[in-house]
Amino acid sequence: MQRRTRGINTGLILLFSQILRVGVSNIPPVTLATLALNIWFFLSPVKPLLGSCLSVDTCYQQKDWQRLLLSPFHHADDWHLYFNMASMLWKGINLERRLGSKWFAYIIVTFSLLTGVVYLLLEFALAELMNEPGFRGNCAVGFSGVLFALKVLNNHYCPGGFPNVLGFPVPNRFACWAELVAIHFISPGTSFAGHLAGILVGLMYTLGPLKKVMEMCAGNFPSRVHHSGQQYYFNSAGYARYQDSYPYGGPGYSEEVPRNYDAYTAGLSEEEQLERALQASLWDRGKATRRGNGHQLTVLLLAVLIWMKLSLLLEM
């Protein structure tokens, strides 16, 4: 884990430009709130990285359990934030509309906490089994563990197809495992245990008892899944640094797609899928809405740039 450096946050600028391309009105509320929360904590962290990262020593030995809440929403630098939130953008658009905003918010909260707990158990088990105390001190930060859990859900609700992992087609049911290995060959400094914890939490939901337990606890808003007669397939391509990157988001949904809409095929990249999904949505919303959203986000982007410039001047 590296310390955040001062300067122009290029990753943050790219993230805002990507949100601008998608359009705020095209992003479901919980997904948008998750993006905003992560950006807010990046600009105004509650604690320094060493005070918010998650490890066995800091949580179990020092009893600093608030790190379970803080670690998923803090990032090491702007590129770490960018790649995680770019992935969150398309996963959130897909899953929130499929499951409903209330249930998706419930999933985000549950997965954020449970991924941290599983991560601690994995690191503790490695330290004991390998007699290596260093595993207790491994400190992880970022949202990528939750994203791996969400990817398991996405593959579960959209089965079939052969996503591309580093240019190689991989059966959808094995895609998460292939990506887990691939990303750590490309970027060895990432938290293998943190990403593995996310996959295990996702499997606990899709194959284990977690979903039923959540439904029993929720009561008032059981999960809902939109089913359609058409299978949708997604390609996963590209990795960079901390998390599998899906630069321009992902698929739309059957209830919003015209009958002659052919965007969701295994031959299209995720960028092309989202491009066509957005076009269909924008056709329905009209040109005026597009201009309004673009203007609002442009103003927001300018405000962030001004804020960063003032911060640099004040520190000089």
Secondary structure layout plus pairing:
Layout: H1 10-22, H2 29-43, H3 49-52, H4 56-61, H5 67-70, H6 78-99, H7 101-129, H8 144-157, E1 164-165, E2 168-169, H9 175-186, H10 192-206, H11 210-218, E3 239-240, E4 243-244, H12 270-285, H13 287-315
Antiparallel strand pairs: 1-2, 3-4
Helix pairs in contact: 1-6, 1-13, 2-6, 6-7, 6-8, 7-10, 8-10, 9-10
Overview of the molecule:
It catalyses: Cleaves type-1 transmembrane domains using a catalytic dyad composed of serine and histidine that are contributed by different transmembrane domains. This protein is mostly helical and 316 residues long. It has a single domain, classed as Up-down Bundle (Rhomboid-like fold). 59% of the residues lie in helices and 3% in strands. The protein is built from 13 helices and 4 strands. The strands form 2 sheets. It has a two-stranded antiparallel ribbon. Strands 3-4 form a two-stranded antiparallel sheet. Strand 3 and strand 4 form a beta hairpin. Helix 1 packs parallel to helix 6, helix 1 packs antiparallel against helix 13 and helix 6 runs parallel beside helix 8. The longest helix has 29 residues. The two termini are 26 Å apart. About 22% of the residues have low confidence.
